[in-house]
Amino acid sequence: MKTTFRYKPNAWIAVSSTVLSxxxxxxxxxxxxxxxxVRNMQSYNYPLDIIATVICVxxxxxxxxxxxxxxxxxxxxxxxxxxxxxxxxxxxxDVLLIRQDSDKTVLILYxxxxxxxQVVDSRSGIQANILQVNVDKRHFDAVIDAIKAHNPHTIxxxxxxxxxxxx
Length: 167
Prior knowledge:
Blueprint: E1 3-6, H1 11-36, H2 46-68, E2 71-74, E3 78-83, E4 86-91, E5 95-101, E6 107-111, E7 119-120, E8 127-132, H3 140-150, E9 155-159
Parallel strand pairs: 5-9
Antiparallel strand pairs: 1-2, 2-3, 3-4, 5-6, 6-8, 7-8
């Protein structure tokens, strides 16, 4: 069993990172043209232009990998969270509490930890780290079912949401 759910980036983050990547790639092309001496373009500082070209190529790749290459993978050992090339596996046994709002738009996991930075929840008194699962809300049930199948002691709560009145 290995199911992967892609990270759902905010629309502004996705659009701005894509536009920024295109701009940086255009700058890299201009730097290459300056280094080659095309038309009237001339490079006055070759080492600086070479470094700028490398940065203008590497940065968009890293940015797009971080945004679009992030995912949550449900494995036999736990939930594997990867952001770009970095990953961390959370054991199913470490998930203490699952909270979801009544509209099923937010899914939060309370994860047992012994490190600094623990949060004490005022309602349940649980001392844990909090992870908001940022995937498409259609996949929330699959994540919840996988956690409950591997750790039946995990508490699942649905919290009522106060709706805002429209004026």
